[in-house]
Amino acid sequence: MSVRNAESIAPWTACWQFDSAANHPKRPELDLLIEPIWYEFVDTLAEGSKALDLATGNGAVALSCAERARMRRLGLQIDAVDAAGINPPHQVPDPEGHLPLVRFQGGVWLEELPFRDGEFDAVMSQYGFEYADEEQTVSEVSRVMSPNARLRLVIHAQNGAVWRDINYRHERLSRVLAEDGVVNLVLAMVRAQQKNDIKTFNSKLNQLSAAAQEAQKLADQPPSDDSAFYYAREFLYVWSHRKQYRPGDMLRSMEGGWAHANGTASRYAQMLRVAKSAEDIAGLCDRLKSAGLNISAVRQVCNPGNCDQIAWLVDASMPG
Known about the structure:
Elements: H1 6-17, H2 28-43, E1 50-54, H3 60-72, E2 77-82, H4 88-91, E3 102-106, E4 120-126, H5 134-144, E5 145-156, H6 161-177, H7 182-195, H8 198-216, H9 227-240, H10 247-274, H11 278-290, E6 294-303, E7 308-317
Helix pairs in contact: 1-10, 2-3, 6-9, 6-10, 7-8, 7-9, 7-10, 9-10
């Protein structure tokens, strides 16, 4: 975020703590294309190096780096931080036992890193750096980098493949969460029923048939793990089986689902907002240079199958 805003972080905490297909879309083919970038990065590091993963989420990059470092017997020490409330050791399957190699810490804002000057030989971030205040974060990152330390950033690309996917999902989810959308209407009816508000109940009920028909269109070739289709289907299912639930239990379930759905929409909106254009990346490079770093590479990360841009990659280093 451009400012430290606890409300903007809350949906991410919910995402990492309750990660599911409904609220965290997977793009395994794109993730697999990016993973070698981190293997390559680890291969450049000296034995016993200390690395810092910024905005780690549930630790995908940190764990990839730990896996590569273990394979090469580098003894890499990894700290991984995020402003959200994360706890990967209790959230992430770890059949290979890489989690103990990473020290995770939640509640850490990138604008104020709790580390000593010059502590890290490598700093990295994938789809995280761009959410923070750029000026403050560049200052903090340069502060914790040791002489000759390396920095690698993988950043959301405006209008890139991931951006377009999220934009499509956001548009679909916004439709079912709108005032006349099926999710909002069902919740409004449950609330009205609890209050014995017959006028509101009947008003919303009269709109439900059209909203349900509109929501049914979402079933036509939805993207994988589609939040819009998931929440529309679940809300309609619970409503159609409402006699099986106690009114209070149904309301609590609906309220919880509404909060999760809106949290997902918030994350989508944030991602769309922070994605970088070529001009934005040029400005970031200027800021890194002003902080004393040398820029060694700036390039598009593309899908070799169709040359479609996935992200930006920025490499920089601290002079020795």
